[in-house]
Description:
The chain is of the alpha/beta class.
Amino acid sequence: MTLPKPFTINVPQEKIDRLKQKLAFADFPDELEGSEWSLGCPLSEIKSLTKAWQEFDWRPAEKKLNEFPHFHTDIEVDKFGTLDIHFVHQRAESRDAIPLLFVHGWPGSFIEVLKLVPLLTKDSSSNEISFHVVAPSLPNFGFSSGVSQRGFALAQYAETCHKLMLQLGYNKYVTQAGDWGWWITRSIGRLYPENCLASHFNMVLANSPESGETVMNFDPKLYTDEEKAGLERSQWFQKEGMGYNLEQSTRPQTLAYALKDSPVALLAWIYDKLHDWTDNYPWDIEEILTWISIYQFSRAGLGAPQRIYYEVRHTSADGPDPSKICTYDTLKEYNSKVPIGLTQSPRDLFIVPSTWAKTLGPVYFEKKNKQGGHFYAHEQPDLLARDLKTMFRTDGDTYKLISEKLK
């Protein structure tokens, strides 16, 4: 049996030097007067960040990342061979801790879990549970290996994460996710419901249970002011914020040339989302540059992370066993086997009414925040820790339901 081995982030110096050379020779476009953020990243901000990145010392940032326990291991994925998967794994001291799989999305990475780790691995009251936290770099992301053939979609990402948990001895576990992690952990709940005992989501995708309404055609008269605000935010995202998604879902290879050759292109492509998808989060320069440098120095290269969009968009709904198919539509179907917890924040990409959210499965925890955005674990780690500790309190319904299965 393959055993995980310790992993240390150590970017070759030639990669750092090459990045600085490219940044030094960057050319910039013009911009329309007064456009600010209406057309995308403002020129002044990208110029400033480019200069800061050129002067940025990666080694202290790398040292800070390495303060967490990193590992890597081989995972065999059906029809795709062996992948070398990087992950953060922090065990709690408590014998009663629950194994928790944290799954990132795009343009995130394992960095999103780091503020959360110390909050989840300790108990703070007699009824609170702690967690053994596992946070992989997904295949094609961060310091995990890439995939070299077509067809690696949600079922394969789910298989990778599930097999990692089994390899670590966690035959029963819970999950937490947003963004692509939402789709991947929904796939895990669909494919491995005997192992995935519960899931918490900080992004919720669902349609109206009564009329088939979507965020693009809802009737304002039927909803509260809070619900309308959430649906309008979702509508804004679908109208004004989906360009990146369409490109990555249809022509990821064409985009890859720009991202690979130009670090400024990568910077703008990701910084646009860090700005638009957060709730006035006070990003500092080191945070931004560390976040983007993980992509710049990723093992699989800058063409790889975007391919998940294409592969999932082009997954066929046909097959001999419909229960094994993981598509955008099938993953919105009700799953009675996995209890779920839901947190929605006002600056996420999709915010739907509770009646819509309850079409996904049996809801054991629900919270609607007054603050927070899409990168919930990074922006509001205290709130996410609150959600998970509340959902899984030892005197709560979720824990009562799953505690016997954990033994």
